[in-house]
Amino acid sequence: MKQSETLIPTLREVPADADIKSHQLLLRAGFIRQTASGVYSFLPLGKRVLRKVEEIVREEMDNAGASEMFMPALQPSELWMETGRWNTFGPELMRLRDRHDREFALGATHEEIITSLIRDEVKSYKKLPLKLYQIQTKFRDEKRPRFGLLRGREFIMKDAYSFHDSFESLDTAYQKMYQAYSNIFSRCGLNFRAVIADSGAMGGKDTHEFMVLSEVGEDTIAYSDTSDYAANIEMAPVVTNYTKSSEELKEMEKVATPNQKTMQDVADFLNHSLAKGLKTLMFKVDDKLVLVVTRGDHEVNDIKLKNLFEASIVELATEEETKTAIGAGFGSLGPVNVSEGIEVVADSAVQYVSNVSCGANADGYHYVNVNPDRDFQISQYADLRFIEEGDPSPDGNGTILFAKGIEVGHVFKLGKFYAEKMGAKYLDDQGKANTMIMGCYGIGVSRTLAAIVEQYHDENGITWPTKVAPFHVHLIAINSKKEEQKQLADEVYQTLKSAGIEVLYDDRKERAGVKFADSDLVGIPYRITVGKRADEGYVEFKHRTTGEQSELHQSELLESIKKLLEV
């Protein structure tokens, strides 16, 4: 490809609204352009990288026994109503009406579409197991699109679905997909971890997220410092063995704590550590009010709370709702003398505290010397807090450390969640109708592109891994007006193209400094510069990442590049 014949609009300045490196560099290097908030056009270079990632995905999906198909982005509301997700998915689901006032959604995901298709087309166990996938644009109405391709309202995704007649068959497919995902992200050159995850609005259980390690990641990974254990912080269980204090129990007393709102405020005011106080929060668990108690130095994990109650929706109650139910606002809540009809649950650590403080359910007052069982009752104790750095690793090996990660893939064992709701059944070998068992497997293709840039860049621009780079070689003629340079550059260009090597030929009438700066910004792995020794047949060869340079004769150039590319 000649650079004069394509669109690569590079920028010298960092765009003001680009906060992270991948967003900055993909804009500056001319890979993407924003059309609206969270909506991007992929320019020629961006599209080439997307295609490279998609090719890797297709190869590994095919190897895992999945067949590619393509489903509509426009989805009728009736299918979503069958699963109940029309009302529970949330405001991220983009909804619209056609001229006949029929409701549709722009596909945020395709479980309903694929399940309706398979229930109509597959009737016998002889057609199972079946694995299908697509690569398609998805739509989600993000409240706050940011970080470029990492959190957009329109994005490219690979989603795959498997259908089975047994959980053993699902387990086999899950492991194949898990391995395929590991292969995909390894081939993309990424430093990643597969972590235990929550299925969220997708339903089902037994899921893993594939996280690319990066400081700009919005997810926190809890991992062992000595084993391969890793989990999303929301899902990591706490296995700390708490011990009961041997101190003598004191008499509970109500004290004034004016204007003390936070746990730290109260701890400082009462002159004790955070661990010697109880934190109490009011949650709405589906349609039920639940008071949740943790130690003051711990944080409530709402995912664990949701799983404890097997709830669809868990959210903090408003201060107005809290005052109506308890008689006090935030900062003064506690488990003592709670109104009937409000269930009180607590994290396991609360069972072992002694002589602690807590809100008195009256604004500006707290109790001190509070003790469980004697002064308040808990309906059930459970692991309800977030794991912390330094906690024992759940697998029994080492202690927990934290890292930030960008989610690029997610695999789910959906089980019968969708098939039951939508009536997807098959006839077994006895002619009996059974509900199908499902798996679901997603990869953010455009997100993966951005994640690669987060891990592969330097102060001058992107440093693409060879397998996903838009081109293998960037060929630059320093001065195209000089006949000997133009002639040699043209010959090298034709030689490389004929050998199947992808080359971007910068034949523009630009200064050498501009060409070199653009080349570093775009980040193609190898650069060939035709300059002052063109009349002797010599070129300069440079490795973009290492900066290593050498002079090569035209006659040895092709074999050297083939060796590097393993072509």
In a few lines, what is going on in this structure?
It is an enzyme of class 6 (ligase). Helices cover 27% and strands 29% of the residues. The chain has 567 residues and is of the alpha+beta class.
Cα(first) to Cα(last) distance is 19 Å
- Total strand segments: 31
Structural class: alpha+beta
Q: Which regions have little confidence, pLDDT < 50, spanning 5+ residues?
A: none
Quote the beta fraction: 25-35%
CATH superfamily of the largest domain: Bira Bifunctional Protein, Domain 2
Shape: globular
Number of helices: 14
Protein name: Proline--tRNA ligase
Catalytic activity: tRNA(Pro) + L-proline + ATP = L-prolyl-tRNA(Pro) + AMP + diphosphate
Pfam families: HGTP_anticodon, tRNA-synt_2b, tRNA_edit
Main location: cytoplasm
Overview of this structure, please?
- With 567 residues, this protein is of the alpha+beta class.
- It folds into three domains: 15-237 and 401-453, 2-Layer Sandwich (BirA Bifunctional Protein, domain 2), CATH 3.30.930; 253-382, YbaK protein, CATH 3.90.960.10; 471-565, Anticodon-binding domain (Rossmann fold).
- It is 27% helix and 29% strand.
- The strands form eight sheets. Strands 3, 7, 8, 9, 10, 11, 12, 21 and 24 form a nine-stranded mixed beta sheet that branches. The protein has a five-stranded mixed beta sheet with strand order 16-14-15-17-20.
- The longest helix is centred in the first third of the chain and has 21 residues, at 167-187.
- It starts with 20 loop residues before the first helix and ends with a helix.
- The model has no long low-confidence stretch (mean pLDDT 94).
- Residues 33-465 form the Aminoacyl-transfer RNA synthetases class-II family profile domain.
- It catalyses: tRNA(Pro) + L-proline + ATP = L-prolyl-tRNA(Pro) + AMP + diphosphate.
- Pfam families: HGTP_anticodon, tRNA-synt_2b, tRNA_edit.
- Its EC number is 6.1.1.15.
- It is found in: Cytoplasm.
